[in-house]
Amino acid sequence: MNAGIFTKCLEFTIPAELKKAGLYPYFQKVESAQGPEVTIDGSKKIVVCSNNYLGLANHPKVIEASCEAARRYGTSGTGSRFLNGTTDLHEKVETKFAKFVGKESAILFTTGHHSNLGALSTLIGKGDFVITDKLDHASMIDGCRLSQGEIVRYRHNNMGDLERHLQRYEDKNKLIAVDGVFSMEGDIVNLPEVVKLAKKYKAGVFVDDAHSLGVLGKNGKGTGEYFNLENDIDVLMATASKSLASVGGFIASSKAIVEYIKNSARSLIFTASLPPACVGAIDMALDLIVQEPQRRAKLFENSNKMLREFKKLGFNTSNSSASPIIPITVGTDETAFKMWRRLFDEGVFASPVITPAVPAGQAIIRTSYMATHTDEHLDFMLDKFEKIGKKLGII
Ligand SMILES: Cc1ncc(COP(=O)(O)O)c(C=O)c1O
């Protein structure tokens, strides 16, 4: 333990200091199922930090499908998809997903993170360029970093800056890789312009629909459907850990592209397959997205109400507009921790997002909504945000 390599760990005291001050917000121990209310330390909290957008994580049919899959296939594939971890249920769900999003083929990874690692690291080869939005999710950045190509970043949703980079690398093979809905900001990629520029400069288009699947578009098919540009997304990534109420990640595309990724992605080949119970949950959640469109309608009724009311109260909600993610800018990291603590004590479970995830002085409380929040939940939260926002001088 005296080796110098560990010095950084011994000197890393921030969490301990925050804990001492009662301001450490992370790794809260939830003692109940995921829903609009949870129990933490024996007391009830209203949840405003979950990605359980459609409220399916606690749906009896999803739970039963998950149990049934475990009874039939056991608890684990005990190996990778490549060698011995694929079941007919994995393949059934891949086919169902590909059909749902209108692609020829799909492959299911063990997490969304793994799918971005696997797809991006294999698609971007030596001499290729990947052009990413500066606020793309960390898993996309990690996937690009694992590749042998060059990474170029453009200013968030700034199409002029994107075009500048495309012009610079006009004669190169390149991929534009973007989030559909940006996970912290809650704004939506300018897909029409991305597609137009991709065509002009012969770039591929990769969209991470982690926060859009089940949410955006008339049928919940994601960002492509929202803009009526489904066929212009070359490679679609979606995670099963949000609207699909499970764990796992999909890459959907043409047969040739999926086959290539499937046979070369290290994060697929060298890791265990998604457990059957999780695949069973996805299978049912995909059906419920189609069968229960009222969930999406309620989700938007809830998030539109919150956006309207937060704005009325004078909170800064940045560019969030048509997604269930509403960031509340509060100022310094310290203010975000204080706001989190006071909300928590008043019965609201929220998450603070601090530097370096956001620029210094622009820490946020990231709020996100579910179809299963009731008006009483929302009014309760608004009341607490108003009271604490005023006390901390945020509004
Ligand atoms: C935009 C985005 N992409 C990818 C991921 C990774 O997905 P998963 O959590 O399923 O591994 C996340 C998860 O937070 C995300 O927000």
Tell me briefly what this model is.
The protein is an alpha/beta fold and 395 residues long. It is built from 15 helices and 13 strands.
What does this protein look like?
The protein is of the alpha/beta class and 395 residues long. It has two domains: 14-54 and 293-391, Aspartate Aminotransferase, domain 1; 58-291, Aspartate Aminotransferase, domain 2, CATH 3.40.640. 41% of the residues lie in helices and 16% in strands. A seven-stranded mixed β-sheet has the order 3-9-8-7-6-4-5, with helices on both faces. A three-stranded mixed β-sheet has the order 1-2-11. A three-stranded antiparallel β-sheet has the order 10-13-12, with helices on one face. Strand 7, helix 9 (223-226) and strand 8 (235-239) form a beta-alpha-beta unit. Helix 3 (60-73) packs antiparallel against helix 12, helix 4 packs parallel to helix 12 and helix 7 runs parallel beside helix 8 (191-200). The longest helix has 20 residues, at 294-313. The model has no long low-confidence stretch (mean pLDDT 96). It binds pyridoxal-5'-phosphate. Pyridoxal-5'-phosphate is lined by residues 111-113, 116, 137, 139, 179, 183, 208, 210-211, 239, 241, 249.
